[in-house]
Write a structure and sequence with these properties.
Blueprint (H helix, E strand, L loop, with lengths): L6 E4 L5 E2 L2 E4 L2 E5 L3 E2 L2 E4 L3 E5 L2 E3 L2 E4 L3 E5 L1 E3 L2 E4 L3 E5 L3 E3 L2 E4 L3 E4 L2 E3 L2 E4 L3 E9 L2 E4 L3 E10 L2 E12 L2 E2 L2 E10 L3
Parallel strand pairs: 1-4, 2-5, 3-6, 4-7, 5-8, 6-9, 7-10, 8-11, 9-12, 10-13, 11-14, 12-15, 13-16, 14-17, 15-18, 16-19, 17-19, 18-20, 19-21, 20-22, 21-22, 21-23, 22-24
Length: 180
Amino acid sequence: GQATQGATLATSTGDIVNTTVEGSTVGLTAFGNISNTAVEAQTTAILTATADILNSSVVAGSNATLTGANITGTTVSTDAIAALTAISGNILDSSVTAGTDATLMAAQIAGTAVTALNDAVLTGAVLSANAISAGNDARLTGTVQVVGNTVDAVATATLIGAALINNTVAANAVVANDAT
């Protein structure tokens, strides 16, 4: 649906599937999955799924916040902050573009492209095969391992993990610490 004001869609027991929602602000809350859904918000977009956010797209004029058990195959583009949190699982094969900061938190983050015009921060147990570009700082923290990532940062790239393996890093300053 399209709304000239805020648009809110919520389920108490099921999924939000094959849906397009537009509005000045958009809020989606699903007890199950948010799947194959397109969101366009003039300002803020907030997507919350008890289960997963799958194969969806979000465009926000300011901030976008996505929270689910897993986030997979999802594209997020915002003029300000993009915050993705997979509470109990993974962020996989997704794309995030943020006009300021991008923050991703999950057990595992893999195969995801992150572009932030300011800072990019990825935190999880395993960070694998991600492409990160930051207009300022990039910080990757993998409590188990940070492996096979490509990181470009204008200022400082920081990689922290129990194992730092085969990462490609280009930055004005590089900090690598193999101990959390």
